[in-house]
């Protein structure tokens, strides 16, 4: 699903690499936590998978494709098979909940009939059934994140990438979001989640990948958060 | 891609940037109106020059039958074949002459028709009323006097004319105006293009949240860029339409009505509506494509995939 082979990334005008010689593999259907302090290279790791950046050395394979050899115009196609969720939700404030979810389908050219069918379905799945016509501003943070997850999942991606999805939420709401991600994982979708939330990692007991100053320092099945900061 | 979705995005973008859009429309309209005006002006000058103007320096007009009755220079009757031969051999001997062309009255009639078309004056003429002539290109155009002294007053010659003398000043003025119009047009065009680039940039910046989300969910580059490009194209097309309006109004008020030059200067064959209409599609196409291209290149820089 995801394979890093000796990947290094140096940003222009910076001497210290953001990632150094990282190699790892994530299989289909796994649930993986990506942990590490700020500046450890987590964001770079995710940006490489989304091909918002290219590697300086080494190869990244996502869904069986070598991203270095993927031409620019094929990148959108690749991204349609990924879902992404962020700490700040990234919803469009002037569109309703339903429109926000539909947006992900509109831009890839799904028919109106398909959209009308799949939007309520996915909103039910994330527990927001009937809130289609609300504006994002009227919802709580947890609900907004559920809308973002619905948008990421509505096209049934094979891989869901979550960058600190619980970073802005209180512990109780976070648990709800994690249950949702777990449910999505059980449908067969691979989930890769970067997080700082110790409780969540310790509770879920999933595979943990830890980065420190760009290096892969730990890759543990059924791991815990495991470091203090 | 769903048309309605894209159209609503365009509308939102144009309204968000109303002042900038207005500036784009005005600058495109002005530059393209000048562009069209300059094209029409060159047409007008070419029209007035007629067939021989740029090709020869001196014309020797020969007498025809009707001149023999009306013109004292032709009192001895229409030109004869020997007189023509004599003129031709004399011209060949002169060192200042570069080339000589003989225009028969039929050819003269044809060229006249081409220049004046269906004007009432042209339709009343017949080929044998036209004068035969020798059209002479000089090695040095200043040496017009040499030809004039040699042939003026000779039997069979009605007149010797320095082709440039009469209209040269007028044409120079028109040409100068034309170049000035083109220079202003070029500057307006640069302004228009820079405005478009800037408008697109602001537009892309103010919608970076939407475009960022579009990229995340896998919208193609074209899908993300299309609304911006079409925004520029729509603003440009409005400007182009205004420019076309300017041209039509100018033709109407300067030539037909208002100033009514066509009534005051009956000898000049003004460019017709066909010439104006001929350029309108060109102006509209330019107004559509030029901003679209400018937007496309601006976006390559500001909207990376």
Automatic annotation (TrEMBL), chain A:
One of its GO terms (cellular component) is plasma membrane. Residues 2-228 form the ABC transporter domain. Keywords: ATP-binding, Cell cycle, Cell division, Cell membrane, Membrane, Nucleotide-binding. GO terms for molecular function: ATP binding; ATP hydrolysis activity; transmembrane transporter activity. It is a peripheral membrane protein. It is found in: Cell membrane. Signal peptide: none annotated. It comes from the Bacteria. Its main location: membrane. The keyword Metal-binding does not apply. The keyword Cell membrane applies. InterPro entries: AAA+_ATPase, ABC_transporter-like_ATP-bd, ABC_transporter-like_CS, ABC_transpr_LolD-like, Cell_div_FtsE, P-loop_NTPase. One of its GO terms (biological process) is cell division. Belongs to the ABC transporter superfamily. PANTHER family: CELL DIVISION ATP-BINDING PROTEIN FTSE (PTHR24220:SF470), IMPORT ATP-BINDING PROTEIN (PTHR24220). Homodimer. Forms a membrane-associated complex with FtsX. Part of the ABC transporter FtsEX involved in cellular division. Has ATPase activity. NCBIfam families: FtsE. This is Cell division ATP-binding protein FtsE. The gene is ftsE.
From TrEMBL, chain B:
GO terms for cellular component: plasma membrane. It is a multi-pass membrane protein. InterPro entries: ABC3_permease_C, FtsX, FtsX_actino, FtsX_ECD. Keywords: Cell cycle, Cell division, Cell membrane, Membrane, Transmembrane, Transmembrane helix. Residues 184-303 form the ABC3 transporter permease C-terminal domain. It holds the Pfam family FtsX. Residues 56-160 form the FtsX extracellular domain. It is found in: Cell membrane. One of its GO terms (biological process) is cell division. The chain crosses the membrane at residues 21-41, 179-200, 221-254, 279-299. Its main location: membrane. Forms a membrane-associated complex with FtsE. Belongs to the ABC-4 integral membrane protein family. FtsX subfamily. Part of the ABC transporter FtsEX involved in cellular division. This is Cell division protein FtsX. It comes from Streptomyces flaveus.
């Amino acid at each position: 699903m995801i394979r890093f082979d000796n990947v290094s990334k140096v940003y222009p005008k910076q001497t210290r690499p953001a990632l150094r010689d990282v190699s790892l593999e994530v299989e289909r259907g796994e649930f993986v936590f990506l942990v590490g302090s700020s500046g450890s290279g987590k964001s770079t790791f995710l940006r490489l998978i989304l091909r918002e950046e290219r590697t300086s050395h080494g190869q990244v394979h996502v869904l069986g494709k070598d991203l270095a050899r993927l031409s620019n115009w094929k990148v959108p196609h690749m991204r349609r098979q990924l879902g992404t969720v962020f700490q700040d939700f990234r919803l469009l404030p002037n569109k309703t909940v339903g429109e926000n979810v539909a947006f992900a389908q509109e831009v890839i050219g799904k028919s109106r009939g398909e959209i009308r069918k799949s939007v309520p379905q996915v909103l039910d799945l994330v527990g927001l059934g009937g809130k289609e016509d609300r504006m994002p501003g009227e919802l709580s943070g947890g609900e907004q994140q559920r809308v973002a997850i619905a948008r990421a999942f509505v096209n049934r991606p094979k891989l869901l990438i979550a960058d600190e999805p619980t970073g802005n939420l209180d512990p109780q709401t976070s648990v709800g979001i994690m249950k949702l991600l777990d449910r999505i994982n059980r449908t067969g979708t691979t989930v890769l989640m970067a997080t700082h939330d110790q409780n969540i990692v310790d509770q879920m007991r999933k595979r943990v990948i830890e980065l420190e100053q760009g290096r892969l320092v730990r890759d543990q099945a059924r791991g815990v958060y495991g470091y203090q900061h | 891609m769903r048309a309605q979705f894209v159209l609503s995005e365009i509308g939102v973008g144009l309204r968000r940037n109303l002042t900038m859009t207005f500036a784009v429309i005005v600058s495109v309209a002005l530059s393209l109106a000048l562009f069209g005006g300059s094209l029409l002006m060159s047409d007008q000058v070419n029209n007035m020059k007629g067939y021989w103007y740029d090709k020869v320096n001196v014309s020797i007009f020969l007498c025809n039958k009707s001149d023999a009755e009306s013109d004292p220079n032709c009192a001895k009757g229409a030109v004869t074949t020997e007189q023509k031969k004599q003129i031709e051999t004399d011209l060949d001997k002169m060192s200042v002459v570069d080339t000589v062309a003989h225009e028969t009255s039929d050819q003269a009639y044809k060229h006249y028709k081409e220049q004046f078309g269906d004007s009432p004056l042209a339709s009343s003429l017949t080929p044998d009323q036209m004068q035969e002539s020798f059209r002479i290109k000089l090695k040095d155009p200043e040496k017009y006097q040499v030809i004039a002294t040699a042939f003026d007053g000779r039997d069979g010659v009605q007149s010797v004319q320095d082709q440039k003398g009469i209209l040269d000043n007028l044409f120079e003025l028109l040409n100068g105006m034309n170049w000035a119009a083109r220079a202003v047009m070029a500057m307006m065009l640069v302004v228009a293009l820079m405005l478009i680039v800037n408008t697109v940039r602001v537009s892309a910046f103010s919608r970076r949240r939407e475009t960022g989300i579009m990229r995340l969910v896998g919208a193609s580059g074209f899908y993300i860029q299309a609304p911006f490009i079409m925004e520029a194209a729509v603003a440009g097309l409005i400007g182009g339409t205004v420019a076309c309006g300017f041209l039509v109004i100018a033709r109407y008020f300067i030539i037909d009505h208002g100033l009514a030059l066509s009534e005051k200067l009956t000898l000049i064959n003004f460019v017709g509506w066909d010439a104006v209409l001929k350029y309108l599609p060109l102006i509209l196409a330019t107004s559509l494509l030029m901003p679209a291209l400018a937007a496309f290149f601006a976006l390559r820089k500001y909207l990376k995939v």
